[in-house]
Amino acid sequence: MNAPSDVRFHAGRHARWHAAEIVFWLAALSCAFVFPSRYLIMTDILRLALFALSLDLILGYAGIVSLGHAAFFGVGAYSAGLLALHGIINEPVIALIVAGLAAAVLGFCTSFLLIRGADLTRLMVTLGIALLLEALAERFSDITGGTDGLQGIEMQPILGLFAFDMFGKTGFFYALIVLFLLFLLARRIVHSPFGLSLRAIRNNPLRAAAIGVPVNRRLIAIYTVAAFYAGVAGALFTQTTALASLDVFAFERSADLMLVLVIGGTGYLYGGLIGAVLFRMLQEIFSTITPQYWQFWIGLVLIVVVLVGRARLHRWVLFVPNLLITRIAGGKAAVAVPESEGP
What we know:
Number of domains: 1
Distance between the termini: 37 Å
Shape: globular
Low-confidence stretches: 331-343
Largest sheet: none
Mean pLDDT: 83
Number of helices: 16
CATH class: Mainly Alpha
Order of helices and strands: HHHHHHHHHHHHHHHH
């Protein structure tokens, strides 16, 4: 087997759907029927998952660290809100795409600043862009509504058929479908030759450039795609909550996104999705137990994850199920665990 065929074979093997992936998405769909009273929080998780997916595309696959990803989220949120408020585009799906494209344009324009520096420079540039947009949104309060945000947003039915309801059922299915479709696109991207070149850039940009990979063009392209994803997540936020305020640009939103990826992991797409679920669950649990100190417990969980490692925690969590299966079946454990990260 020659080299191109070998690469194509391995890429095709990794691109195949696994049973665990199918179970994951079926479980996400089943939540609508298992937790019918929790549509609003589940929709929030889906929005956060899509937002985290957008950051994972640049952090996990291209090695671009960002502390200002909320800039694209905010542009998408305000674009969708303004389009609906002024009756420019009344159809939510079309407005969603337009809002994503607006964020993508911002991502493309700012990507040229990003490729000039290393990690620390990128952190400062991305953070500066988000802070600048937040200041501009506050300055032009006649357009953005200032600290009060956009008032009187009324969303039209999706495709003219499915109206948003106060319980959030329509919003949940809408967000789930959008997340799934964009996940399919992201999955296709990362398993393509383009995605393989991104991994090469992340691991060693100098070596990638030496073998002919156009490093800057690849980084600009994936940064623009990630901005589109973040803009769609922001538009989903506005469309499902009928709200857009300066909070969408807040640094805390970008920081929470980094926490989600620390919990879930980077570089395999599902990290952002799983991290979003765990982060919101932990937030709900800790805020119920100690409303004033839930951030302390979240911080403690992050310290444990960093010091112990996700793979080792995974093995510990599955130790009892594996032990029971082994005793019952009389054979080897049936639940797979990841390899050790170290001694």
